[in-house]
Amino acid sequence: MNKKLTIIVCIILVLGLVSASIGIGYYYGVYEKYIQKETHNIFYDYYVAKVAQFKEDNKTLGEVDVAFLGDSLTDGYPVQDWYPQYKVVNRGIGADTTWGLEERLDCSAYDVNPNVIVMLIGINNLDTMLQNYERIVQKIKQNLPNTKNIIESLTPESGDFAFRNPQAISNNVKVKNIAQRNGCTFVDMYTQFLDPNTNELKLEYTIEGLHFTPQGYEKITGVLTPVISSLLGY
Fold this sequence. Notes:
CATH architecture of the largest domain: 3-Layer(aba) Sandwich
Distance between the termini: 67 Å
Order of helices and strands: HHEHHEHHEHEHEHEEH
Strand order of the largest sheet: 2-1-3-4-5
Low-confidence stretches: 1-40
Mean pLDDT: 87
CATH topology of the largest domain: Rossmann fold
Shape: globular
CATH class of the largest domain: Alpha Beta
Structural class: alpha/beta
C-alpha cells in the first residue's frame, strides 16, 4: 500500500470512529441537554440551519391547518405527502430535545399560528424531558389560545435501544397527565407501535430500532388523521 493510499485509509477510519462516537453518545443519552452554541457540533449546525429555514418559510406561509413539532421522528415524516387534504408544515429537527424545542417555539409554532399542533418530543432527552415539558405546553396555550393541541406519547424502541422502553412508559404516564391538565388531546402511540410478542417496537415499523420506516409513518398517519379531522371540524 503506497503512502497516499495509507493516509486516505487512516482518514476514513478516523472519521468513522468519530461518527460512531457521536452516534452512540447521542442515542444513549450523552447528548441530553439542549444543544449549546459553543459546541459548534454537527447537531447544532443542523439545528441553526433548520430554524433559519423555518423563519424564511414562515414569511409566505399563510394560514396553516396543522404544524408538526418534534425531533428526527418528525423531521423524517413527509407530512405534505401523507396529509394532502390539509395545509401542513413540518417543524421537526433531527436530534432535538424538549430544551431545543422550547427555544424555537416562536418560529415553529407562534409565527405559524396553526389551527392544530401535533407534538412528539422527548426521546432524545428521556432523563430531562419532564423538566420543561409542561412549560412548553403552557407556553403554546398562552401564545396560541385558539390552537388545538395533540400530544403524542413516546413510541417503543427495539433491539439495542429497547432498554429505554421502561423509562418511556413511565414518562408517557406523566405526559398523559400533562395533556389532560392542559386540555390537550393525548394520543397513545406507544401501544399502537408495540409488538406484544416482544414488548418492543414492531420491526416492520422501524429502520434500526428507533426511527420509522414508511410503514411506520403510514401507521402514524392512520392514527392521527381522524383525530386531526375531528379537531378541524372536517
